Amino acid sequence: MAPRSEFPGNKRKLANGNKDHSSKKPKFEKKPRREEPEEDASDDSEISDFSDLDDGGASLGKEESQNESDLAVRPKSNGDEPGKVFEKGQNSRESHIKQKQLAQDRKSQKPLADELHRTKKLWERLRLKSKVPKDERQKLVEELFSITTGRMKDFTLKHDAVRVVQTAIKYATPERRKMIARELKGAYPVLAESKYAKFLIGKLLVKGDEEIRDMIVPEFYGKVRKMINHPEASWILDDIYRGIATKEQKAILLREWYGPEFQIFRQPQEGETTLSAELSQIFEQQPSKRGLIIKYLLDMTNQLIQKKMTGFTMLHDAMYQYYINVKPGGEEAKEYMEMIKEDENGDLLKNMAFTRSGARLVCLLLAYGTAKDRKQILKTYKDTFQLMSSDPNGHLIILAAYDLIDDTVLTSKSIVSELLGKTEQDEVPNLVITANDPNARVTIRYPLEGASKVLFDAGRAEDLKLLEELWEIRKTTSKKDPETRRKELVAALSPSLLAAIALSPLDLISTSHGTQLVTEALLSSVGDKAAALKAIASTAQGNPNEEEEPAESSEELANGLAQREHISKASHGGRMFKTLIAGGHFDKATKRIIPVDSPLHFADILYPFIKDHVLAWATGPSSFVVLSLMEADDFSHKKELTKILKEKKKVLEKAATEETPEQKAAKEAVEANGEDKKAPKKKGKKAGLKEKPVGNMGSKLLLEKLNG
Questions:
Q1: Which of 41, 537, 638, 668 has the smallest number of Cβ neighbours within 10 A?
Q2: Euclidean distance between CA atoms 577 and 593, whole angstroms
Q3: How many C-beta neighbours within 10 Å does residue 458 have?
Q4: What's phi and psi for 549, nearest 5 deg?
Q5: Is 120 part of any domain?
């Protein structure tokens, strides 16, 4: 289970702008140390307890100290510290040895003293994983289980022994883990409240199976309100809810936020097969209890917000259920918005951005909120947008802000400048990282492409559904035309994108996702694109048939990559050049290229860089790039290119008929493995009838064009 981290809040400021220093301790003047009198202490003096932290015992009281001989306070002479209490005739070393012996005697009189001492020795040996042979470790584990079996609860409830049980779980077999889980049955709520034992529950759940899960999770039923407010138990409860519990178990735990009766009655209603935590369904079944449920849920939510315990997934799920079941724009919804905004440090909104329900709730708050509400929400996320952009849930808030906030100047200053960086030195590395992150790249490409199928594939169907819901709400809360808003955002993005492409094109096109971003930026951005287009075209220079060129990007050098593959050998590079030459995307519905408003004329920009090696391009993996040049209407060197290709027609014919290196490698793989695992398996009459064509298909089409 992943660790959590709360966002640190800012120091509270007073109305006059000064910081509140009331919480600081007052400074006191250092007073001279009082000299201790050299006289015998009274019989009521106590012996200091020097036992180690693992002891857990109490210090000696008056009755024990009175049985010792008379005590005295020795002066600073003879090397002893002033104020030390010793027996008469003893120095500090002798007194310390005697006190240590007294502590050991007390520990030996406690229950499980000998067993605890032995298990600690075993634990000290077992934790040295790399230095203990496997056979010896097995013997140590067997001995550990022989001591702890039957007394697991006694060990887990001792803070210095619970780590021993965790080690036993680590090296245990599945059957032994189940045995440990059964022994601890009934004690899990108590263990969850322990500062140390709560980790044992996590270890059992992570290492265990469904049987152990179904043994542990039900013990938290009926205790959610108490445990979610506990400083230790709340986190293990939320981790179980977030990552371990089944859908039905999560529903049972979440329903306890709706009222005391849900802590007792946990059976499905008539017509239900499983329990549901959807408030809308509960209101349909019990409409008369709506007021009580809403009040109870609001009370629990507000209680945690006031305590600054706002990082729980369970809390965000409960808040989302509340908001979607109150009337939009009504008094309950407005009061809820104010409650969230009143969190002075903004920790609640920041934590909500990183959970599924929390992020969706923030999107709805942006949709239904006023312009002032939206501005305050954006202000809360200042310096957090870059982290949010790479999060599976947080990036949705950025997309919602693009679609919902009419003030695009505010959006660009708050979000775009942080995502891309405020200086040229930051823009390139930020854009490279963003382009290759599965979530962050959507936040840059969404204004350029809109809700395209490339961005919102089957895996992002839920995200697109949420955006469509926001678009419907926007019709009643926004005054600006959506297309106007999108164009204004593109205008805000364009300068940084074009500058980064012109400054470091090789870094950006080194990956497939990087070339996609570059392509969309050059097609959709506005402004002077000349430098960026020339920079991208320059990456095609050089002979594709020579050895790979040395790496030039700082990122590759840092990673120890000494060679860079020529862009013509990368399929994503060929696709990028083809699209830029065509000047738009191919539309499958109309089966034609949809050109951009401002023609790029990229064919004329690219040709000088590949002219000397155009034959290598025409017979290589990116042969379709040369075909695109021949088909481009705005290419001014078409006659020259045609002449070069006709002179080398025999080379084209050879490439069109012989196996390419890629086809040869695929054939060898098939012969080695017995079948082509990447090829789709065909069934019925069509199986085996159609063979893959041999030769470079781009070269074949070029020959047809030359002959035609």
A1: 668
A2: 14
A3: 6
A4: -80, 155
A5: yes
**What would the two tokens of residue 76 be?**
């600073």
Does 69 fall in a domain? yes
Do residues 205 and 184 both lie within one domain? yes
| Dihedral Cα 352, 358, 362, 364, nearest 10 deg | -170
In sign, the C-alpha dihedral spanning 572, 578, 579, 585 is negative
Look at strands 85-87 and 71-73 and give their pairing.
antiparallel
What whole-number distance in Å separates Cα of residue 638 and Cα of residue 489? Answer: 38
Quote the number of domains for the chain: 2
pLDDT of 74 > 60? The answer is: no
Q: Which residue in this structure is represented by tokens 């695992």?
A: 677
pTM above 0.85, yes or no: no
CA distance 166 to 163: 5
Within this chain, do residues 76 and 89 fall inside the same structural domain, yes or no?
yes
Alpha helices in 585-689 (DSSP H): 602-610, 614-618, 623-631, 638-647, 649-657, 661-673
Tokens of 12: 């509270």
440 contact partners, CB below 8 Å, separation of at least 6: 389, 390, 395, 419, 433, 434
> Cα(239)–Cα(3) distance, rounded to whole angstroms?
9
- On whether both 138 and 189 belong to a single domain, the answer is yes
Calculate helix-pair angle for 356-368, 394-404, nearest 10 degrees. Answer: 10
Cα 481 to Cα 407, 412, 420, 478, 486, distances in angstroms: 12, 17, 26, 8, 9
Beta bridge partners, 85, equal 73
Q: What is the distance between the alpha carbons of residues 160 and 153, in angstroms, rounded to a whole number?
A: 13
CA distances (Å), origin 229, targets 226, 235, 312, 337, 597: 6, 10, 11, 23, 58
Identify whether the C-beta of residue 158 lies closer than 8 Å to the C-beta of residue 116.
Answer: yes
pLDDT in tens, 303-328: 999 999 999 999 999 999 999 999 99
User: What residue type is 271 in one-letter code?
Assistant: G
Q: If DSSP codes are grouped into helix, strand and coil, which group holds residue 69?
A: coil
369-386 pLDDT, tens per residue?
A: 999 999 999 999 999 999
Return d(Cα 385, Cα 17) in angstroms, integer: 26
Element holding 91 (H helix, E strand): none
Q: Which of 639, 622, 525 is nearest to 581 (CA)?
A: 622
- Angle (deg, nearest 10), helices 92-108 and 113-126: 100
- Spatial neighbors of 633 by CB under 8 A, at least 6 apart, are none
Domain ends where: 198, 218, 238? 218
pLDDT digit string, tens, across residues 333-360: 999 999 999 887 889 999 999 999 999 9
Count Cβ neighbours within 10 Å for each residue of 578-590 and write b for 16 or more, e otherwise. bbbbbbbbeeeee
The rounded distance, in Å, linking the Cα atoms of 615 and 610 is: 9
Pair 115, 210 in one domain? yes
Using one digit for the tens of pLDDT, what is the confidence trace for 446-466?
999 999 988 998 889 999 999
Q: What are phi and psi of 229, to 5 degrees?
A: -95, 0
Which residue reads 């039905």 in tokens? 248
- How far is residue 218's CA from residue 214's CA, in Å, rounded to a whole number? 7
Q: Which long-range contacts (CB under 8 A, 24 or more apart) does 672-675 make?
A: none
Are 121 and 161 in the same domain? yes
Residue 208 and residue 192: Cα distance in Å, rounded?
17
Cα separation, 93 vs 21, whole angstroms:
45
Q: Are residues 120 and 211 in the same domain?
A: yes
| Structural domain includes residue 671 | no
Which of 172, 189, 218 is the endpoint of a domain?
218
> Which alpha helices (DSSP H) does 504-564 contain, by range?
505-508, 512-524, 530-538, 554-558
Structure tokens at 648: 């080398």
Output the CA angle 560-562-565, nearest 5 degrees: 125
The answer to whether residues 150 and 66 belong to one domain is: no
Rounded Cα distance, 110 and 261, in Å: 44
136 located within any domain:
yes
138 and 85 in one domain?
no
